[in-house]
Amino acid sequence: MKIVEILTPAYDAAWLPWAVQYFFLIAIATTSALTASCISFSHPSSTSRRLLPAAVTVLLVSAIVAPIALFADLQQPGRFWHFYAHFTPTSWMSIGAFLLPLFVLLSVLFALFWWLGKTTLLRLTSIFLFLSAISVLIYTGAEIMVIRARPLWHTFFLPLNLALTGWLASLGAMLLVSRWLPTGVQGLPAVLVRRLSLFTLLLLGISAIGWVLGGLTGSEPSFDAAVQLFKTYPTWRMSLYGSVFLALLLVLLLSAEPKQVCSPGRSLLCALVMMGAAWVFRWIILMSVQGVPKYGAGLYLQSMPLGGDGLMGILGIFGLCVALLAVVSWLLDRYPYSHAVVASQD
Question: Would you say residue 309 lies in a domain?
Answer without folding.
Answer: no
